[in-house]
From TrEMBL:
Organism: Saccharibacter floricola DSM 15669
Pfam family, one: Bbp16
Lineage, broadest ranks: Bacteria, Pseudomonadati, Pseudomonadota, Alphaproteobacteria, Acetobacterales
Record-given protein name: F5/8 type C domain-containing protein
InterPro entries per record: Bbp16, Galactose-bd-like_sf
Amino acid sequence: MIVDKLLLFSNKQDLTQAQAGSPTPSVNTVDFSQARDFGPTEGFKVFVEFSSLPIGAAGTTLSIAVQISIDNQNWTTLEDFPSIDITTLTNSQPFAVRAKPAFSNMIYRYMRLTYTPSQTLSSGIVMAGINLDVPSQQAYPKNYVA
């Protein structure tokens, strides 16, 4: 996956500082008034993956939301993704979110993500951003006889 630094919400953001039950904003916001190359006129996708998997107490979940703003001060939640049980994340499948965000009827300039752990995390480094497509592992049947 090729990633544009200008389209990243988080790059090596440490989630151990996130307070339980309280939304922690991504380090970066994307400013859509600036020239950005989104490629062809397709919709874009949001991805969230972990270079260091989140670790917390049993039953810990992580909620991720896409927020938009006109002034970079007042934020409105555009989309809440379902909470993720952090034990379902693995090194081979480190993705918490791979989705196309909903569209809004209002014109907005800024976009960010928020991360809300249900309990304090003892580990967790996140990378998140916008891309035209996100990686996935696709298994195909064998094309040979063993």
